[in-house]
């Protein structure tokens, strides 16, 4: 049944407008309902406005830790039973954490909607946070860090970039945090973190799929309405001074043999127009094998095994990161020179009409695909409400991309992608053993 639900979920595709209804309970929980009767599937999800940036600098990793910890059980769901309940009822579930938010969701056959709502209300209302759960998940997180980062080639790539790009903002550490910080934390500190952030007024509930709106509202009120409002959170603002001189750094990775050159520029909040212009620039320079950087450096000059770039968009600040792995006798400096030449071109010349149209087609396709299944729609509804403050972007954000001109692309490149505004990181092999 779980496989059938997953297949149905993946098969739902539509480029049509996403209709939704939203309202707020008395306790502050924002609720978004989206009815889609094309398949007997439903997604129940909760996004909490808490991520790595909300942590104490001496207790990093808490938000990601809670991604795991809040599956341990509740007063009415025994320890170890969460996943059994979901799978035995034909469902699948998961969670993920970023610097800005934490997201939990279940996908069930639509006749188990009430079960999904009850389980998420249990997680919010009275999770069991005890020493057994903390100790168990501590080992799970440590193993995750070993596998995904410490023992993985280029696994600390983003770690090295973030710690050099941010000096004041909590974005300077990774969501997985410090294992030493988690080891030092007391049970009371974990319980206090839960009480502070995992509250109805710091969350949004999304129900998407084949639902009866009236019945769903009754169940939402039944299971979430009585949960007490949490403390009113005042989000701290962190300001980074502009980068005015090139930051040069080196990171040694014992798991690699081929060095990498990394260039990173700090960019504005993902909510800004400039961030969306930078998305177009990223796609133009390195969006696949037909992009300018790949065609020039990998295909034509055969200077690199890999070249790429991506925008790391976040609520407060972002990063635009370009990276390359040299081939043969070519050096990191050789790659940097070629990359810089292409950046200068986009700063001084208008991209061609053909390339501009290709970009628009690419982003139109991405926009449609982002809302092509229920799981994507549910997460997008939560994200646009909680992080962007404009849920209607789920239907009209593509219009913002379409309104960006070639001249804007050139001007934004001039504004953010200058040599004195960046980090140049040599990510190189090390003979030292990786630390577990």
From TrEMBL:
GO terms for biological process: proteolysis. Residues 31-170 form the Peptidase M16 N-terminal domain. Residues 185-362 form the Peptidase M16 C-terminal domain. Gene3D superfamilies: Metalloenzyme, LuxS/M16 peptidase-like. Keywords: Hydrolase, Metalloprotease, Protease, Zinc. InterPro entries: Metalloenz_LuxS/M16 (IPR011249), Pept_M16_N (IPR011765), Peptidase_M16 (IPR050626), Peptidase_M16_C (IPR007863). The keyword Zinc applies. It comes from the Bacteria. Belongs to the peptidase M16 family. This is Predicted Zn-dependent peptidase.
């Amino acid at each position: 049944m779980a496989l059938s639900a997953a297949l149905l979920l993946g098969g739902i595709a539509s480029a049509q407008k996403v209709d939704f209804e939203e309202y707020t309970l008395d306790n502050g929980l924002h609720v978004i309902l989206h009815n889609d009767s094309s398949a007997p599937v439903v997604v129940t999800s909760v996004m909490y406005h808490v991520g790595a940036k909300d942590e104490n600098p001496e207790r990093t990793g808490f938000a990601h830790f809670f991604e795991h910890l809040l599956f341990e059980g509740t007063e009415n769901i025994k320890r170890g039973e969460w996943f059994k309940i979901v799978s035995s009822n034909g469902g699948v579930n998961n969670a993920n954490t970023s610097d800005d938010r934490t997201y939990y969701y279940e996908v069930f056959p639509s006749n188990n909607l009430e079960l999904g709502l009850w389980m998420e209300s249990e997680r919010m209302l009275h999770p069991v946070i005890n020493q057994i759960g903390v100790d168990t998940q501590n080992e799970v997180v440590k193993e995750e860090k070993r596998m995904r980062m410490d023992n993985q080639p280029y696994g600390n790539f983003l770690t090295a970039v973030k710690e050099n790009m941010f000096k004041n903002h909590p974005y300077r550490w990774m969501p997985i945090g410090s294992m030493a910080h988690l080891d030092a934390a007391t049970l009371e500190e974990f319980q206090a973190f839960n009480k502070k952030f995992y509250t109805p007024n710091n969350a949004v509930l999304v129900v998407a799929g084949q639902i009866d709106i009236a019945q769903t509202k009754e169940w939402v009120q039944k299971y979430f309405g009585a949960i007490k409002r949490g403390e009113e959170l005042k989000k701290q603002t962190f300001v980074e001074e502009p980068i005015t001189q090139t930051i040069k750094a080196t990171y040694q990775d014992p798991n690699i043999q081929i060095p990498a050159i990394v260039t990173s520029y700090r960019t504005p909040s993902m909510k800004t127009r400039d961030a969306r212009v930078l998305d177009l620039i990223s796609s133009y320079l390195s969006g696949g094998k037909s992009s300018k950087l790949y065609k020039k450096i990998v295909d034509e000059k055969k200077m690199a095994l890999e070249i790429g770039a991506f925008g790391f968009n976040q609520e407060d600040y972002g990063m635009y990161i370009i990276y390359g792995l040299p081939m043969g006798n070519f050096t990191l400096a050789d790659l940097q020179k070629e990359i810089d030449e292409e950046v200068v071109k986009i700063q001084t010349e208008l991209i061609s009409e053909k390339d501009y149209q290709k970009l628009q087609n690419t982003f139109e396709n991405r926009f449609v695909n982002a809302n092509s299944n229920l799981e994507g729609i549910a997460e997008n509804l939560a994200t646009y409400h909680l992080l962007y403050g404009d849920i209607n972007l789920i239907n009209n954000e593509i219009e913002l991309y379409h309104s960006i001109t070639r001249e804007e692309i050139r001007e934004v490149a001039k504004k953010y992608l200058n040599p004195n505004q960046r980090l140049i990181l040599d990510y190189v092999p090390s003979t030292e053993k990786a630390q577990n």
